Amino acid sequence: MEKKISFIKERVREIAEFKGVNYGDFFTSIEVSPTGFRGDKLKTGLNSDTIEKIISIYPDINIIWLLTGKGEMILTNTNQQQPTAPPTGDLEKDLVAKFANISPRDIAFYTHLKLDTMMEEDIFKALIENLATKRALELLKEK
Length: 143
Hints:
single chain
């Protein structure tokens, strides 16, 4: 289930946390005061210049998520709706193709947050079944 953050300024703070940037440096980089992101000021809007700065500095941020809270924070091949190659039948090649443009850190973070969603995808089900079968065979060979 997606975590929906209600206010745009809360989502902006979430970007800083996800990117591992302290708030002071983050707000300086987008040229805003951190005081506008505390207390009741979190419930106010954000001007278009600030949104443009965020997107230009962090181009992997999904602007739809930033503006509405819907979808995923980070753009991937999947949520950019770019055409993807059909599965080849080679599990390893399919996984490499699926995650070619995503950093290992982002994959680990996404996996942690979206394990249930990932298990709905056939390729992940196949991977888990494949690994489970290999492990079961290893255990049988040990006996």
